[in-house]
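Need a sequence for this fold. Nothing fancy.
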């Protein structure tokens, strides 16, 4: 067995594997001998079939299989020994006329090599780190929502300006069908809200989505329209009224506070407002951190310069899936996945360069916190450690869950590293202003 490598350039190489008869002959003979012991051929006793007949019937198939085994085993060992960082898998170079009747064989494989580059987190520029605040209007609105939620719901026969309407938005052409609750104050134009006054259950109100709300992003909430479709959307939607209700607002008293937050945790309206602000800003922190992570990622992809073995990767994509692709399809797939591949390489370089590792204790602690938050959402505020440990053990016995949670832990480690090493301008904004900045509007 002889293996040599010819480096075409920094990103492409060809490996030549020479397989001699000595590398495979003994293995072929052993397999054929076993076939002879078990072969059932009319006219011959089991185990007494002439070897010449066995070779004639099975020899070529066994030869191909054993040569391929020897080839793959030695090629894989060579790639490991040489510590080559590959993109994709080795691609065999197809020869029009390959002589399987020869005793010695030569195979060639194209390799796509991973590029060499450095990542400098200190060079990432023009990144903002947002601190999102809950303004008075947001807190006022949430207080009203709480009072409505815990207030007494009274059914109405006819809608007025203060009614809450439950119904379904529909537009067959755009595939819109979403059941939701609305109130008159959600609409940008009072004339739109007035269309509902005097309506009854079963009535249908037709609205146009253009300028329906003060922020087009609300179409995502009320109509479940995707972000890419909300801007400039101008179609008629029907709202079929299914319920008409009004709320008698709950009093802001200790009974209400204890019901929502537990006994004695909130004792006044000021406490309530502070709690609303605190909880909202915790949620905002998660969104702000995700934007910071996304912005750093985009900057790294844009500014970390290196070439890829593009032509090799396109050829590899053509044959990598279950169904072969055309050159045009592979080109399209490569263009869609290029940035993702670039970030995978950048991320790997950052992980290795900063010795970011995930220990079992990291994974266990992270899973425990996730479970506690989930249980808190269902009112289980103080679960025992034994209960948590039992759930963690069950979750981490699922390999798919382990993979998913490991990715989240590594993302958190990357975020913390970026916070430490990327110079960012801190900017305090309200939530509506953050949404505008997030979507570039």
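Here you go.
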């Amino acid at each position: 067995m002889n293996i040599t490598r010819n480096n075409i350039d920094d990103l492409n190489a060809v490996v030549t594997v020479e397989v001699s008869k000595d590398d495979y002959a003994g293995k072929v003979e052993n397999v054929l001998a076993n076939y002879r012991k078990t072969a059932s051929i009319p006219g011959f006793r089991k185990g007494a079939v002439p070897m010449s007949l066995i070779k004639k019937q099975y020899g070529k198939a066994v030869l191909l299989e054993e040569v391929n085994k020897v080839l793959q085993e030695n090629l894989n060992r060579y790639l490991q020994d040489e510590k080559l960082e590959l993109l994709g898998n080795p691609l065999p170079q197809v020869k029009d006329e390959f002589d399987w009747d020869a005793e010695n064989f030569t195979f060639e494989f194209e390799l796509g090599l991973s590029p060499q580059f450095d990542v400098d987190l200190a060079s990432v520029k023009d990144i903002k780190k947002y601190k999102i605040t809950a303004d008075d209007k947001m807190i006022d609105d949430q207080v009203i929502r709480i009072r409505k939620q815990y207030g007494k719901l009274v059914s109405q026969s006819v809608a007025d300006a203060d009614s809450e309407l439950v119904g379904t938005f529909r537009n067959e052409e755009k595939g819109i069908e979403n059941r939701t609750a609305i109130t008159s104050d959600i609409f940008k134009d009072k004339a739109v809200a007035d269309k509902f006054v005097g309506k009854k259950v079963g009535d249908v109100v037709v609205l146009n989505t253009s300028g329906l709300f003060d922020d087009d992003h609300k179409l995502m909430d009320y109509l479940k329209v995707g972000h890419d479709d909300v801007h400039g959307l101008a179609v008629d939607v029907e709202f079929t009224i299914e319920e008409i209700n009004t709320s008698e607002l709950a009093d802001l008293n200790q009974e209400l506070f204890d019901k929502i937050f537990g006994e004695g945790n909130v004792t006044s309206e000021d406490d309530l407002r502070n709690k609303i602000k605190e909880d909202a800003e915790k949620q905002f922190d998660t969104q702000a951190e995700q934007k910071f992570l996304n912005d750093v990622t985009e900057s790294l992809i844009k500014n970390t310069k290196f070439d890829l073995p593009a032509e090799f990767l396109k050829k590899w994509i053509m044959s990598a899936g279950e169904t072969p692709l055309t050159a045009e399809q592979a080109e399209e797939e490569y263009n869609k996945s290029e940035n993702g591949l670039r970030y995978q390489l950048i991320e790997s370089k950052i992980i290795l360069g900063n010795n970011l590792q995930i220990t079992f204790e990291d994974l266990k602690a992270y899973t425990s916190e996730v479970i506690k938050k989930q249980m808190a959402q269902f009112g289980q505020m103080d679960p025992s450690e034994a209960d948590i440990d039992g759930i963690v053990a069950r979750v981490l016995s699922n390999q798919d869950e382990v993979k998913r949670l490991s990715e989240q832990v590594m993302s958190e480690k990357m975020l913390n590293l970026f916070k430490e090493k990327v110079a960012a301008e801190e900017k305090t904004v309200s939530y509506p202003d953050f949404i505008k900045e997030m979507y570039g509007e």
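For context: The radius of gyration is 33 Å.
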